[in-house]
Amino acid sequence: MSFEATQWRWEPSKDTNDGMHPVVIDQVRARNGHCMYAVRQAGAVLSKSGEWEHEPIPSSRDDAFFLRCRFDSWEEAAKAILKYCKPQGRFAGGVRTTVN
Questions:
Q1: Range of 60's domain?
Q2: Where are the beta strands (DSSP E) in the chain?
Q3: How far apart are CA 58 and CA 76, in angstroms?
Q4: Of 7 and 72, the one with more pLDDT
Q5: Is the residue at 52 inside a domain?
């Protein structure tokens, strides 16, 4: 038996843990079996351009969705969170459009 991490929770500080839905990175399998990564929060997924989108059910996801909303590496997904998300995610005021 072996274990593999498939989800990582973003907690920028202990002060922001107030019961809000967390922003997470989920390891997901592409149709070809390749591992990719999704940044999710409460039914939404972060696109590579920093916009939150409703995540459709698997049978409704097309190639354009995968190109926009799947990251090739965990590092790429984590950088998108740091670039676009506020400490408590989209419910804390949305996604930033500029990076400090």
A1: 7-89
A2: 7-10, 23-29, 35-41, 44-46, 52-54
A3: 22
A4: 72
A5: yes
For tokens 């400490």, the residue is: 87
The mean pLDDT of the chain is 80
Where helices occur in the chain by DSSP H, the ranges are 63-69, 74-84
Dihedral angle at the C-alpha atoms of 88, 51, 69, 75, nearest 10 degrees?
A: -50
Asked whether the beta carbons of 25 and 14 are under 8 A apart, the reply is no
Residue 13 lies in a domain: yes
Is it the case that residue 8 has pLDDT exceeding 90?
no
Count of domains for the chain = 1
Whether residue 100 lies inside any domain: the answer is: no
pTM score: 0.77
Name the pLDDT band for 84 (thresholds 50, 70, 90). Answer: confident
